[in-house]
Amino acid sequence: MEFQEPKVIGSPLMYSNRVTLKTILESSDGEMVLVGETVVVGGWVKSSKEVKKQPVTLPPCAFDTDHASPGRQGLTCLEILESRIPCFRTIIRILCGPASSPAVREKLESLVPKPTPPSTFFLQINDGSCASCLQVLPDSTDWNMYISPGCLEKLSANEKQIIQLKAEKILHVGTVEQDKYPLSRKRLPLDSLREYPHIRPRTTMVSSITRIRSTLDFATHTFFQKYGFRHVQVPIITATDTEGFSEKFQVTTLLGKTSKEEEPVGVSDADVVSLETVKAAIKEKSGVVEQFKRSDSNRESLIVAVQDLQKTNELARQIEAREKSKPVTSVKPDSLNFNDDFFGRPSYLTVSGRFHLESYACGIGNVYSFGPRFQADKTVSSKHVAEMWTVEVEMAFSQLGDAMKCAEDYFKFLCKWILDNCPEEMKFVSKRIDKTITHRLEYMTTSSYDKISYREAVEILRKVPDKAFETQLQWGVPLTAEHLSYLADDHYKRPVIIYDYPKAVKPFYVRLNEDGQTVAAFELVVPKIGTVITGNQNEERFNVLNTRITEFDLSRDQYEWYLDLRRHGTVKHSGFSLRFDLMVLLTTGLIDVRDVIPFPRSHGKANS
């Protein structure tokens, strides 16, 4: 079997005969090589402009085109006829004379055809490979093209070089229903685009975000493969609760098998977000609006935040009306016999894959996984949806400090990789979303991060003189988003790592410190985002882990396999989890995670 040689600049894509616009528009070498060449491109028309031409004016001469002067060769009969229309009108005025009837003059002039003003269409097309558009000059007005071969030209306009494609032939046309196409209107707000997740990738905004997301995905694998980590795929369906704090999605095949006498088990008729959670979201989004008003961010981001707040207020009014009109039907999970279920026991969509990674770390060394994680949390938040992608890492023979160092290096690697490999996308998001984003990423790449204990963080927050936090601060209470935001945004003004949390606020498997009150856990907190990475050293001591399972009132049978890792050759090991969607949010400067996830899944929203 023969394989096609790797493509070079200017060559068609593998498995396609077209050249990407990124090759044409963003490669200086490609520009020089391809100008004057015939290429095939594909794309979607973003905008069009019609430019009227001046009518052709010819000097008086005979109509014999076979013996026409060289300056008139190649003209059509219609063009020649239109150029003689002023002569026809002059003849009519002479023949009719000043005394002739106006009606006769009008009738004669109506016989003379009126010229059609010539025009040229200039199209801007984009194929999703870059943020820039290619100007296309089609050979006809039928310009809803998909793929068109043509010759590339270099033009000079306002001292700026422009690459233009002069189309010779249209190979395929994909028309749209103009009255139904959601992108017919210019620059829809991001919250409106969420209603069309299957169409929004065609916008420059979402396509740029997707390329940044793809680059971060590649950078993740590049980093861990470079440093000897093995990629392990962990299951999405699990019977083990790895966190102990979050609501889970239950997986079952029993719902369609209830008897006719039993009340059907299903979702409540009032399947809506609770009014309390929406009011909490209104408060959070109001804070975001105020933050944008105080900052130097792009005004468009402020407008989007205000529109999002207005929609949330409208949602609150709708819920209030629905709660008054609809009764709530209770769900009866006790009526299900899970012995008859597909897996023979209660099973859930995984919240975390680190348990399963531990088993491989204790066998082959450093490992990582990358995949979706699920939480059935109905809270309305700009930083959380039901399905979020997570990068998880486990390292054998390592302790808390090792995990903190690896997490910091990985985070800085992602920031630098985006700056180095997505320059055009970063220019676009800087212009349209947040003009400070490039500077912030550069600063986070080069600066050192302060590391403080939970106790030190509490002391700093207690000494804040002119700010009253909503949650009363005392030792042992989880740090809220408001607390973390103050530490990263106002106090340190850069990422900060907080470690040694109280044992009551972290999962049971985190290693207990010598003081018996704190555990070896940490969080990497980033300005404007909050916690991006959470990590810890795992409890490797069998007796301590067994006691912690009892303290959390967890089923011992459920964790026997996890205890086996301590029974049979335990070693010190640690790891962390990076919330990948929040990392994309950070690098794009956006404020809502639903705008950086291709098909976001949130409470009441899974429409495609």
TrEMBL record:
InterPro entries, per database record: Aa-tRNA-synt_II, aa-tRNA-synth_II/BPL/LPL, Asn-tRNA-ligase
Cellular component GO terms held in the UniProt record: mitochondrion
Domain of life (superkingdom): Eukaryota
Enzyme class at the top of the EC tree: ligase
Keyword Nucleotide-binding in annotation: yes
Keywords: Aminoacyl-tRNA synthetase, ATP-binding, Ligase, Nucleotide-binding, Protein biosynthesis
Record-level GO BP terms: asparaginyl-tRNA aminoacylation
Statement: the UniProt record of this protein carries the keyword Acetylation: no
Aminoacyl-tRNA synthetase class II (D/K/N) domain span: 339-602
Enzyme Commission code(s) on record: 6.1.1.22
Molecular-function annotations in GO: asparagine-tRNA ligase activity; ATP binding
Protein family: Belongs to the class-II aminoacyl-tRNA synthetase family.
Protein name: asparagine--tRNA ligase
Species this protein is from: Gossypium barbadense
